[in-house]
Amino acid sequence: MVSNVQELRPRPDSEKITINLGYVDLGHIDLLVRDGFYSNRSDFIRTAVRNQLERHREAAEKSTVRKQLDLGISHFTRTQLEAVRDAGETLDIRVLGLATIDTDVTPDLARAAIASLTVLGAFHASAAVKAALADRLK
């Protein structure tokens, strides 16, 4: 028997957030959606966010360089972190975007290989690894 049940997961290129809007602002958004300017509320909000990011692009780019942030997705595997630890080194991770640590990374390995962690965006790791790195997360 073939099952058509699929596990629901967030898209790997997005993170769900919740915002509170006033009723009048929400009504204006609904009016623009109803009149066909946007396909739905999320489309309006994504467009507004992109417009604001573009408006402040130059300042954000300068800050990214100044803070030495890696832009995009940074993924760390158990093998990579073991190599860092075995070399007697540690990582100072700075990411603007998404930082992920594989689920097979133990809290002890994460603490041994990661000296500091700065993530502007989203950080995906097991709850145990997040707890182990909590004092190193900036």
Automatic annotation (TrEMBL):
Gene3D superfamilies on file: Met repressor-like
Any one GO biological process: regulation of DNA-templated transcription
Entries under Pfam families matching the protein: RHH_8 (PF17723)
UniProt-listed PANTHER family: BLL4998 PROTEIN (PTHR36215:SF1)
Identification of the protein by name: CopG family transcriptional regulator
Source organism (scientific name): Croceibacterium mercuriale
Taxonomic classification: Bacteria, Pseudomonadati, Pseudomonadota, Alphaproteobacteria, Sphingomonadales
